[in-house]
Amino acid sequence: MRKNNQDSGYAGPNFLLIADGMGGHAGGDVASAITVSRLAELDREPSGEDALEILRTSILEANDRICRGVAEQPELAGMGTTVTALLRAPGNRFGLAHIGDSRGYVLRDGELQTVTHDHTFVQMLVDEGRITPDEAETHPQRSVVMKVLGDVGASPDLDLTLREAHIGDRWMLCSDGLTGFADVADIARVLAEVSDPDECCRQLIDLALAGGGADNVTVVIGDVLEGTVETAQGSAVGSVHVNPQYAMIGANTDAEEAPTDAEPHYGDGDIPTDTVPLQAVSDADKQEPTAEVVPPSQRTDRAASDTDEATKEDDLDADDDEVEKRSYLGWIIAGIVIIAIAVGGFFAYNYMNNHYYLTELDGKVTLYRGLDTTLGPIELSRLEDTTDIEVGTLNSFSQDRLRGSIQADSRGEADRIIENLRKEAERSGNVSGNVQDATKPSDPAPSPPSSEAVDPSDAITEESQ
């Protein structure tokens, strides 16, 4: 449903990476592209160097590039990105670096394990025992990230760990566009049942889209295999692929500023004319004043009288000006308030008229237009369409979301969500019809690019809704 993709990802034979950008229009795109562009250089055979130190210094360099990019283009201020990276290390191990709320998982012996810790406000509440993990899943501030890479006024605080590599492990890195809209149990099932990494990525993305798909979805999968397998060069997706020019922002470090002297220097005998103050003189100033003869005895009284009169006139003029300014200011404020109310009403009406949500009605997936709320006795929505999709045929995550509501900002977005729910239901063999009256099928989700495996096969798939 997003207009642009702020995710960037990379998969190669020795390195996997996910970066979910944030910071408003273009800012997140730039931050994730800069990060993946810089860190993709790590995709090489492991050497004797410390993998965690390589990750740390490389991520800090990416952070410096982002900050230089903000200095070059101030409109990008506040941009940042999450980073979750997996690097091959000597001795059958992986170096894992993490900051933000993207996640890393490993499927080992049929059990899915989380190997990263979310740097979010709700995770902090969970860690402190103030809320439960189940409550965190629906907390209204679950998207508030406490640590990221970028222009956030603090040095990155990275989680760095070494992980053992076991033959048969399946690693998955993903943005919160997957974990925020698909149930972890369903994710584990797909990872365990679908052997082909590309197809596995596609089915995981289908889960996220069926769950509402309101965020960019990027999934990276790497299988750990025995022996050496020839692999092609790693591939990048997302913003860094679509907007390669973003990766160059903040990268120029060779330019040196010309030295400047503390005091300006002028050549011998030269006088800088711009240091001489100039005074404008009007034609009236050039005329000689008319002389007036005043007797000495009258000069003091007359001067005092003239001063009093001038003071009174100045005070009256000041009062008139103040009254006039207040009058104008009142009208201006009233006009601004009226315009604000009119504009706000227009946008509120337009938003409600173009907003949709999906919910459950009599066991069916049902589409409403408007807002899922009331204003006193006034309903702010109306029934738009009823589908033939049985809610009971959907996975548990989709059912939970429908019991609340799945929001859509246009009819087209609503139709795409319905189509994704339909595909999910059809996989269980329980739906064959179409949406009653008005729902039109959308185009299938684009196929993800092919990818390689991590030591030695991996795959990466990305899609922006």
From TrEMBL:
Transmembrane residue ranges: 328-349
Protein EC: 3.1.3.16
Low complexity compositional bias, start-end: 450-459
Polar residues biased stretches: 429-439
Superkingdom of the source species: Bacteria
Signal sequence extent: none
Gene3D superfamilies the record matches: PPM-type phosphatase domain (3.60.40.10)
Keyword Metal-binding: no
GO MF annotations, alphabetized: protein serine/threonine phosphatase activity
Classification via Pfam families: PP2C_2
Keywords (A to Z) from UniProt: Hydrolase, Membrane, Transmembrane, Transmembrane helix
UniProt domain PPM-type phosphatase: residue ranges: 1-224
SUPFAM superfamilies, alphabetized: PP2C-like (SSF81606)
Bias kind Acidic residues: ranges: 306-319
Primary enzyme class: hydrolase
Region (Disordered): 255-319, 425-465
InterPro entries: PPM-type-like_dom_sf (IPR036457), PPM-type_phosphatase-like_dom (IPR001932)
Protein name: Protein phosphatase
Gene source species: Brevibacterium marinum
